[in-house]
Amino acid sequence: MKVIVVDDEAPARERLKSLLKDQPGVEFAGEAANGREALELWERSQADVVLLDIRMPVMEGIETARHLAAQERPPAVIFTTAYSEFAVDAFDAQAIAYLLKPVRAEKLAAALASAGRVNRVQLTRLAASSAAARRHICAKLRDKLHVVPIENVLCFIADQKYVTVYHTDGELLIDESLKDLEQEFAGRFLRVHRNALVALAHVTRLEKDDAGHLHVHLRGHAEPIEVSRRLVSEVRERLRTGH
Amino acid sequence: MADTPRPAPNDFFLPELCSGPVVILVILIAELTAFMLAMARHLPDEGAPLWLDLARISLFLQWIALTSTGVLCVARRYLARMALMQAAILSFMLLLGVTLAMSEIAYQLSMNTGAGRELLPASHAGFVLRNLVICAIVSALVLRYFYVLHQWKSNVRREADARFEILQARIRPHFLFNSMNTIAALIRGRPELAERAIEDLSDLFRASLSDAGVSVPLAEEIALAKQYAEIEALRLGNRLKLEWRMEGVPEDARLPRLVLQPLIENAIYHGIEPRDQGGTVSVRGSLESKVINIEIRNPLPPEGTPTRQGHQMALDNVRERLGLTWPGRATLKQERGVEEFCVQLRFPYDGAAA
């Protein structure tokens, strides 16, 4: 069983590593200091189990688990936390494995033994029950997992089947509905068309083309995006007030 | 010695009688009593006008009241050592004694000089006895008033103390368990660091469990905050940098325990921990005409970081304790700049220790 350790504190990782050494049948497959590194590490190592701290900079544990849950073959996730106050309690604690730090060797053994049973359904439930918006968009492109901070996303454009994410360094395809994205990132993105959400922070100007259609121009995105007629007044209002 | 911010409570029901406000209160009580007696005695159709009667009674009563105040003022420190009931009865007796003496002197004076004789009743004993009864009633009321006032004040003080203790005892559970985890990790590989972390942690807990409301020298509070930062540095590694510039701040200045440490803790918790690259917490102190000014700065968490709870709580906690210690004379301001968060603590400095 391949296990990776994710925690922003070096001593905490050291301790888990030394505990894992004593566990039979466990192969330590690497460590990461935050969620973004963890996703990359997981992809490289294809670990079966991720020991995941909840509070970390860059990308915290709950969000990391949501991205992991969305993968084709998600790993089992065991949260580690110093104090069981918020996150874990907020979800259905029965569904989620978690260990309290300092972790006991016996508890770790028990959690690893039952890790296989923390299945995709439970992780999906976690993803669904989390009310907080993600801070990253995560998707595979040419077999590589890409993690894009939400502030780098310029717009979401939907076609028949997928949503294309245009961001500062390229584009990604994700399998989510525009409606859900609009809800999740309501303060940050603005619906300008049936098939388009644009990032308020990246809008440079509104302009009418020769045919009289209003278009939104985005910084770093060559193609202006058409604003549908029935949304024109709302778009103008939101851009004027800035939120 | 520099003043301790919270003087020990004076635990006797009689107030300091030789102080201005109390003397004025006594005069007022005596005057009101005189007015009452004059009104009761006055018959509209005969004798001297009311104001003349009032003047004479006032003179007599103020004489008794001020002498009594003087006597009790002197006797207070002996009374304060007695049991409450004993002290109350003795105070009562003293008041009666003064009244008896004054009545006797007034009677004899009047008889010998002839002044105001028409005001006195024919019976010597009747005069003295009546005065004693009036005195007994008024004294009982006044003593009772002082007692109830004292009870009320000490209740208020007890409540403030309790609140102070609750406020001080708040240690973030996250910090405790993370520290324990760090120590557990260090024990095998670096036992000497683990040892030091346990010592620092012990000092921190000793401070938070110690007597509430006791003031400590600033030097001690700085040392404690530094020990706290040491523990955090073990955990956060090179993500945490601390910059202390406290030259020119008198180290003997006194402040309530655990005022500085929570501010440093806050700066690390909200400013450093959420940052991948960490940052610097800077602490600067200065003395400006009897006011000590300490500024704690930390970088802002990255944009989009979910707000961590408890930020305002910790600041309010410190602010409340400052308010209990130096009502209206200490401030804690917070300011969010473009790149950093700054907390400014100001409290009075009463001068160097003698």
Q: Report the β-strand fraction of chain B as a percent range.
A: 5-15%
What kind of sheet is the major sheet of chain A?
A: 5 strands, parallel
Number of helices of chain B: 9
Coarse structural class of chain B? alpha+beta
Biggest interface reads:
A-B, 27 and 28 residues
Q: How many extended strands of chain B?
A: 7
Q: Which ranges of chain B are low-confidence, i.e. pLDDT below 50, for 5 or more consecutive residues?
A: 1-9
- Globular, elongated, flat, extended or rod-shaped: what is the shape of chain A? elongated
Mean pLDDT of chain A: 85
Taking the alpha carbons of the first and last residues of chain B, their distance comes to 5 Å
- Helix share bin of chain A: 25-40%
The percent range for helix content of chain B is 55-70%
Q: Give the strand line-up of the largest sheet of chain A.
A: 2-1-3-4-5
Highlighted features:
heterodimer; A: 243 residues; alpha/beta; five-stranded parallel sheet; five-stranded antiparallel sheet; 8 helices; 33% strand; elongated; B: 354 residues; alpha+beta; five-stranded mixed sheet; 9 helices; disordered N terminus
Commentary on this structure:
- The complex is a heterodimer of chains A (243) and B (354).
- Chain A has 243 residues and is an alpha/beta fold.
- In chain A, 30% of the residues lie in helices and 33% in strands.
- In chain A, the strands form four sheets. In chain A, strands 2-1-3-4-5 form a five-stranded parallel β-sheet, with helices on both faces. Chain A has a five-stranded antiparallel β-sheet with strand order 10-9-8-12-11. Chain A has a three-stranded antiparallel β-sheet with strand order 13-14-15, with helices on one face.
- In chain B, the strands form two sheets. Chain B has a five-stranded mixed β-sheet, covered by helices on one side.
- The longest helix of chain B has 45 residues, at 124-168.
- Chain B starts with 19 loop residues before the first helix and ends in a 6-residue tail after the last strand.
